[in-house]
Amino acid sequence: MLKESNTYKYFQKFINIITFRDIPLQKKFLLFSVGSLFWLMVVAGIGLTFMFYMDSSSKKMVDVNVPHSKTVNLVYSNVREVCVAVHKIIVSEDKALAEKNHERAISRLRESKDYLDTLLTGGKITYATRISENNTIDFLVQPVRNSEQRKIIENLKKNIDLLSSNVNEIWDLKTKNKSINNLKEKLAEYDILVLQTERNLMNLLNIMDKEWNDFSEYMSLRIKMAILLMSLILIIVIILYFIFGSLISKALKKPILEIINQIKALSTGEIDLTKKIEVSSKDELGELSREFNKLMETISHVAQFKKIAEEDDTLQDVYNRLGKIFVDELGLRDVIIYEVSNSKKNMKIVYPPELEGTEANCSMDIQLDSDLCRAKRTGHEVSSLDYPEICKFFIESDKHSHICVPMMISGNVGGVVQFVCGKNVSCDMDFKNKISRAKQYIREIQPVIETKRLTNTLKESAIRDALTGLYNRRFLEESYESIVAGIQRRGKNLGLLMCDLDFFKNINDVYGHDVGDIVLKETASVIRKNVRASDFVVRFGGEEFLVILVDIRDEEAFNVAEKIREKVEETKIKITGGVIQKTISIGVSEFPKDAQNFWQSIKYADVALYKAKERGRNRVIRFTPDMWEEEKY
């Protein structure tokens, strides 16, 4: 009984090995991959061996047979050309033309004999194309080895010699003005010799064609054999794939079915993401069940978070909600969310909102030029935990560490989330695990942010001038309070430039409104290029533009205005039939230096503009109190 028990045990162990039941998952797939690679190499080896054989055989045949056939065809072509030339000698009344045909015939026969010699000894053949004598083609010829072909070639050489002799005799008869009957007799003798030569040439070509046909049949047979062999191997591979696939499937089926049955419980009715799978084992699949439970818990929370964020009223509410998740749920205390502007030139802090416009963990430079931010520029996560001092704009990098995660919006970086450790949170493995969870929330919130930003963009289109793309009066009326509040909070000044094109009405009268629109667009572009991204350019009226310079130093606005005036004057605007150069007059004021009321400061800039017009145009005038003659604004 003990012997039978041991026999059954060994037999069962053998069966388990064959069916892969005792082999770990990694080894199962490794074995399957090795088998697949082996048979792939077998099939590839057969295919490559056959390809190399075909290539070498074909190259050998092409290098020998094709040049031989080409050479024989050249001889044949020459013989036909000589025949035509001889007949022209007889019928030609022009002695010079007859002599030219005689020379051509002798030259072609001499050339043909050289070709035949090359066939016997091998060498290089160079011949001129029929298109142009200056265009030549050359190719190498191997010596003819076939004795039958060599014999024919020797006979052809003799025929060529006889043809040369006949051509000379015909020429002598022609030059000596012999009777036409003598010429006809010699021509008949010549035609018979030509016919014999052509037959020999055709016979030689037929022999060469037969060699090529024999080679083609030989290669066709080899191809069929290769296809048969590869088909046989392919059938074997398919059978083995089926066997091994079935064995692996059976090894995985039972434990996987248990997990599937647990997951099916979640698919009854509305999915309950909080329902967990019962963990009944400690193996790899048991670990899978535990991780699945964690995943469902995370997905449930993230899905609920996304749904609530979609219902938020503003984009700022979404940023606040995301920040609170990081702080309250994940315990990441030091978090800053940056939003990249639609122009992608600058960025600002949107969470915590009280840090907007201030220098937080990073230098203010990155807010003014977003490309200085490594995470924004590359679109990749930046971590000083892995690479200390990776970002030169991070403040106190010697004391704290940071991880910056980009938020991708419409294929571009639309924002950056910065997590800092070393202040209130330790830079340990728990911190990294929390960052991994935080990135799940970031991935889920990106479509919501994209939608909110798109909505804002649509709203912005209502405050943009359709022709120039600049802000319009509506934008100024809706936004001036926030612009003024920011200036007052930072204790800075606004520069106000009221710009007006000189004699613009003449453009419309002389060239038409289409050209006038071109001039307006080009002028708007020049103004926009010569101010900062943080400044505002507004199309204030027909040909009037208002430039709002943010956070300027005293009297800096005048210099900017002078720069704009010079650039407008230098600009050559292309139109149909030529170019136009225009000038611009600019009035300058500053808020709150000139007036405590924003609109009053604009009025002062307008007054300075009229003074510039009165003083000859194409100039910049700074507002002074003596220009205002009214008692009240």
Keywords:
633 residues; alpha+beta; de novo design (two linked rop proteins); 4 domains; 5-stranded antiparallel β-sheet; 5-stranded mixed β-sheet; 15 helices; 13% strand
**Structure class:** alpha+beta
Number of domain units: 4
Q: In order across it, which strands form the biggest sheet? A: 4-3-7-6-5
CATH class of the largest domain, named Mainly Alpha
Please mark out the parts with pLDDT under 50 across 5 or more consecutive residues, or reply none.
none
The total count of helices amounts to 15
Strand content: 5-15%
CATH architecture designation of the largest domain:
Up-down Bundle
The SSE order reads HHHEEHHHHEEHHEEEHHEHHEEHEEEHE
* Number of separate strands: 14
The largest sheet is: 5 strands, antiparallel
* N-end to C-end Cα span: 117 Å
Rg is 46 Å
Helix content: 55-70%
Mean pLDDT across the residues is 82
* Fold-level CATH name of the largest domain: de novo design (two linked rop proteins)
Shape: flat
Describe this structure in words.
- The chain has helices at 2-18, 25-91, 95-121, 147-175, 180-264, 284-310, 315-329, 365-368, 374-378, 429-461, 473-490, 504-511, 513-529, 556-570, 598-614, and strands at 123-128, 136-141, 334-340, 347-351, 382-383, 401-409, 412-421, 493-501, 536-539, 544-552, 573-575, 578-580, 584-591, 620-622.
- The model has no long low-confidence stretch (mean pLDDT 82).
- The N and C termini lie far apart (117 Å).
- A 5-stranded antiparallel β-sheet has the order 4-3-7-6-5.
- The protein has 633 residues and is α+β, with helices and mostly antiparallel strands.
- The protein folds into 4 domains: 55-228, de novo design (two linked rop proteins) (Up-down Bundle); 270-311, no CATH class; 314-455, Beta-Lactamase, CATH 3.30.450.40; 462-627, Alpha-Beta Plaits, CATH 3.30.70.
- Helix 3 (95-121) packs antiparallel against helix 4 and helix 6 runs parallel beside helix 10.
- Helices cover 61% and strands 13% of the residues.
- The chain is flat and about 125 Å long.
